[in-house]
Every structure is written in C-alpha cells, then in structure tokens.
Specification:
Strand content of chain B: 25-35%
Largest sheet of chain B: 6 strands, mixed
Shape of chain B: elongated
Helix content of chain B: 25-40%
Helix content of chain A: over 70%
Radius of gyration of chain B: 24 Å
CATH class of the domain at 14-92 and 164-232 in chain B: Alpha Beta
Structural class of chain B: alpha/beta
Strand content of chain A: under 5%
Number of domains of chain A: 1
Order of helices and strands of chain A: HHHHHHHHHHH
Distance between the termini of chain B: 48 Å
Oligomer: heterodimer
Number of helices of chain B: 13
Largest interface: A-B, 46 and 52 residues
CATH topology of the domain at 14-92 and 164-232 in chain B: Rossmann fold
Chain lengths: 282, 321
C-alpha cells in the first residue's frame, strides 16, 4: 500500500472505489449533527428556546379560551412547531452558512471532491433530524406539563408529514438563499432575526391570527410561516377549530401551493446566487 | 494543448507537465493582478512561486485550483481547464488554503476521516495523522490546537486523498523557525512519494530549501524562472566598478558584471599605471538578487500591495456605511 509511485494507481482506481452518493449525504448529515450537538449555543437556541417560550406563553395566557374548545397553549404549540421548523431551516442554517462562508469552510468543501448536491442534501437531512428532535421535545413537554392531547389518527400524521417536509424544504432553501445576502457572517443574525421575529408576530404564532388587523393578515398570507402554522394547527387542534380560521377552513391546498411556491422561489435564488467564497474572493 | 482533457489518460499525463499556463491574466477593474504569466510545472517537482505580498501569487494559484476565473489566457492543470473543475479532477488534487483550518468542534481524527471518505483511494487516516506529527492530538478538537498544529492538520487534510498534485499557499506564514524546519521535512517526504507540489511563499529561504525550481513574480509578471542554484549563481557574479578620466578631462564610469573579478582586476591593473579611480568590487547576496528582481520600483510595489484589495473593498464599504 505504501508504494512510492502514488500517482498512477490513484488515478487508475478512481472509478472503482468512489463513495456512493447516499453514503456521502449520510456522512455529511451525521457530521453536521455531530458539530451541532457540540455547539452549546446552537443546542440552546434550537432545543431549549422553543420550550422556554412554550412554558412562558402557556403560563401567561395558556388558559385563555380562543373558541372552538381550544385554549391558547394548544394554539401556541402548533405555532411553536411551525416556527421551530423555520428557526432550524431558515434562521439557524442561514446564519451558519454565512459564517462558514466567511471562515472559508465552504471554500474548502468546494475545493474537495464532495459533490455540491451531497453537501446540500446532507444539510437538509441534518435539518430534518434536528427538527424532528425539536418537535418531539415540544410535544413531550406539552403532553407532560399541560396535558395537550397528541393526535393519534393516521390522517393527522399524514398531514403532519407533508406540511413538515414541505415547510422544511422551503425553509432550508430560503436559508441557503439568504445566507448569500449577508455580506459578512457576523451580520447574518442581524439580517435574519428581524425577519423571523416579525413573521412570528403576524403569522399566528405569538398571537391568534384572526385577532390581527386584516391588513396585517394579508401581509402574512404572502409569507410561508402563516401557512406552516395553519398547517400545524390542522394537525394538532381538533377538526372543529377549522371554522375559527380566517378562511373558515384549514386551506390545505392553498398551504401546499404557497409552501411549494416559496420552495421553488428559494431554489431558484439559491441556484442563481449561491457562492462558496466570500464576496470579492473570486 | 495537444493533450485532450480527458481522464483515464493518466499514464500519458504522467510524462506531461502537471501544469501549463500561457499568457494568464486576471484583472480587477483596471488592476492587473496577474499580467500575462507563462509557466510550465513538471510532474513530480516541487515548484515554488515566490514574490512579495500582493504580487499575484495567490491569485495565480487560486485560478489553478479552480477557485477563481481567469480573465484571459490558457491554463491546464492535470490535463483539464481549471475554470471547469470536475469531481474526477478534484480527486487528484490536494489543496492547502492560505487561511488556517476551521473552528469546527470536530477532532483531528474525525476531520481527516471525513476528508478521506471523499476520495477513491485515500491514505490510511492514522498513518496520515502520524505523518504530520499529530498522533497525540488525534482525539483533540481542532479548536484546541495551536496555530502550527492546525497548519499540520491542513496538510493532513490535503494529503489524505493521495493527490497527484498539491497546492500549498503560504503554508508557513507565522511559523517560528523550528516549526518551519519541521514543516519542510514533512513536505520533502511528500515529494519523495511522487507528488507534484506547487508552493507559494514570500520567504526566500523556504523556496530555496524546498523547490526544484522557482518562479519569482512581481506585479503579476514573471521576473525570474530558475533553480535555486541558478538564482544563487546570479548572486555569485561580482560587480567591478571604476572610473576613467579621458584626455579631454571627461570622467567615464564603468561597471562590469563578472564571474572572474580577479581576472578583470588583473586587466585593469595592467592597463592603469597608477591608481584605478573609484575602484570597487561588490558581491550581491541572494537577498540582493531577489530584491533586485521584485523591487525595481519600490513605489510600484506599494501600489501593488493593494492589488489583492478588490476582495476587501466590500468590507471597507460596509464598515464605513
């Protein structure tokens, strides 16, 4: 194995032992998750922060009946799950990518034989893994502390599956797209946090959506979080609550269409603007 | 280029140059960072690109690594145009960037292992870590390594894929002399393995110690292409200077660059009965030769120092806004 002429055998065997795409995607996802689990800030932000908010909101106004036999903590739980998906896929991913670009991490990856598709799919799998843990923790806390019922019928979980996947896909590509907007990694939180926070206020996370002024509702309808939160309510709130929604129904087709449009839009922007290197380093 | 840029011709490309560059240019606005460079780097050699900061070394190397797009000219690296890198091509390259490796909270072993999985025929992970002298740090996170240890990790990441061609961009900047000597030994052991190595540096002694051949670049132009011995030979020439007053009283200065100053002097003594006016014999050091090559116009060099600034202007703009 330790022969002197390394060049020829290396080239000759390159076709034979190339790692498979699936293996690379999985390895990237595991590596990213390992890095994530060792970053205390990330762990706190992604796992503890939503639970803290849930406990705070449930304690402050959790008992308020908002109609349809639903109290605010139930409503808020669905909103927290939706914004958790956005935090992980959009905010956290966007910031970490911008910092990685600044630190030449992306440049290093670009200079290696790792296919770009394996890199991005690894990111998405990582975001999915983290989001699932995050949602499981939220459900566990709300079941243990507040006796919030967790749906058992398969139809609800089928809805959960597509809303979750479509929401994560849209958030992830938007996070990647936005990472290129921040010129420096350090300024990424300043760009992303206000967007996420504002959306949480107007999209039916911190407040009941129908209690917002209608002009704010219309603004929120353009963005994905409103639809993601509504989709999650359709999973975690009783069917009877549908009548309390702004449109009087869960609007599943509209939810799917809006999230899909944002996904395609994010993908197009990503393909067009994604850069492996810092601005100017080209 | 007579050689088609196809893979699977590695037996042929073994004998071909690893890198050929013809009239390479890279401009940022009206600034010529690389200004018509011609280079041929042979397979198996250690080739150093030497020059002051901002001379265009890194720009050149980053074009060859497939990171930057050239403005014009031709470039072939392992038979392929680096402006269109492929996965197969990347598998044959090892790259050590100028910036030091990441702050990832991963251990040396984890990082090298992952990197090795990206290549079809990697070296052993433990063997590679031992080779760069990090075996005692294998299970330490990269964040806990010293600057020199991180550079060793960078080398490990660059060599673990068993590259045919390695780029080392200013690998020892900021090293103390002891660390630099250790690093040189490491690079020499790689060359013994048959790897072609392209090294940029602004240390003359580093290029002299490691390189089979070196290119001196200044203001994006090639100002010397030689072996270290050849460059040293230029320093071996002595300069004999003197003056002569003619019959009409005019004074003429003479200088002669020669390998045999004693013979020159003998001739001068034979031709002049009395004192030889303003007689002087100088021997330039290697440093003088180098400085003479790169520093013909020190004013220009200062301006050149800003040559790599286009990348920074965005930061300045942001800071001021």
């Amino acid at each position: 194995m330790n022969q002197a002429s390394t060049a020829t055998p290396a080239a000759a065997s390159s076709a034979r032992r190339r790692p498979s795409m699936a293996a690379l995607v999985w390895e990237r996802a595991v590596l990213e998750t390992k890095e994530f689990s060792r970053s205390r800030e990330q762990m706190l932000f992604i796992f503890m922060f939503p639970i803290l908010l849930l406990i705070l909101f449930a304690s402050i106004m959790g008992g308020n009946d908002i109609g349809g036999g639903v109290d605010f903590k139930q409503y808020f739980l669905a909103g927290m799950i939706a914004s958790g998906i956005m935090n992980t896929g959009f905010q956290s991913l966007g910031i970490s990518l911008a910092i990685d670009r600044d630190d030449d991490v992306l440049k290093r990856i670009h200079g290696s034989p790792l296919p770009a598709s394996a890199f991005f799919m690894g990111k998405i799998v990582h975001v999915l893994m983290v989001s699932i843990i995050q949602i499981a923790l939220l459900l566990l806390v709300s079941a243990l502390l507040y006796d919030i019922p967790i749906p058992t019928e398969p139809a609800a979980w089928l809805t959960f599956a597509w809303v979750f996947l479509l929401g994560t896909a849209a958030s992830t590509v938007l996070g990647i797209a936005f990472s290129s907007l921040a010129r420096r990694g350090r300024s990424a939180p300043a760009v992303l946090t206000p967007i996420v926070l504002s959306l949480q206020f107007i999209s039916g996370v911190f407040f009941v959506f129908t209690q917002l002024p209608s002009w704010l509702q219309h603004i929120a309808e353009v963005f994905p979080l409103k639809w993601l939160a509504q989709g999650m309510r359709s999973v975690f709130l009783p069917e009877s609550f549908a009548a309390q929604e702004a449109a009087g129904s869960w609007q599943h087709p509209a939810t799917a269409i809006v999230l899909a449009i944002w996904f395609v839009l994010g993908l197009a922007v990503t393909i067009k603007t994604f850069r492996w290197q810092r601005p100017g380093d080209r | 280029m007579s050689q088609p840029p196809s893979e699977g011709t590695s037996l042929v490309s073994m004998t071909d140059p690893a890198i050929t560059v013809r009239d390479l240019r890279k401009t940022y606005g009206d600034l010529n960072a690389v200004d018509g460079l011609d280079l041929t780097i042979e397979t198996g050699e250690i080739f150093a690109i030497l020059g002051p900061n901002g001379a265009g070394k890194s720009t050149t190397v980053e074009i060859l690594e497939g990171f930057r797009k050239r403005t014009s000219g031709e470039a072939r690296v392992l038979g392929l145009d680096p402006a269109h890198p492929t996965r197969e091509w990347r598998e044959r390259l090892g790259i050590m960037l100028q910036s030091t490796s990441t702050n990832a909270p991963l251990t040396v072993h984890e990082m090298v292992t992952h990197q090795s999985h990206l290549f079809p025929n990697p070296r052993g992970v433990d063997e590679t870590i031992a080779e760069v002298g990090l075996e005692e740090k294998a299970n330490v996170r990269s964040t806990a390594l010293s600057g020199g240890q991180r550079r060793r990790l960078d080398v490990a990441l660059a060599v673990v894929g068993r590259p045919e061609l390695m780029f080392l961009d200013e690998p020892t900047t900021g090293f103390d002399p002891e660390a630099r000597r250790q690093f040189w030994q490491l690079i020499e052991s790689l060359k013994d393995g048959g790897t072609t190595i392209v090294l940029t540096t602004h240390y003359l002694d580093e290029a002299e110690h490691l390189a089979d051949r070196l290119a001196v670049i200044s203001r994006g132009k090639l100002v010397a292409l030689d072996t270290p011995a050849g460059l040293r030979a230029r320093a071996a020439d002595a300069v004999v200077a003197w003056s002569e007053t003619g019959a009409d009283g005019t004074v003429a200065s003479h200088t002669e660059v020669t390998k045999t100053p004693t013979a020159t002097l003998r001739g001068l003594l034979a031709a002049h009965a009395g004192e030889v006016e303003d007689l002087e014999i100088r021997r330039p050091s290697l440093e003088d030769v180098y400085l003479d090559l790169i520093g013909r116009d020190s004013e220009d060099l200062v301006a050149e120092g800003e040559a790599e600034l286009p990348g920074r202007t965005t930061a300045t703009e942001e800071a001021s806004s």
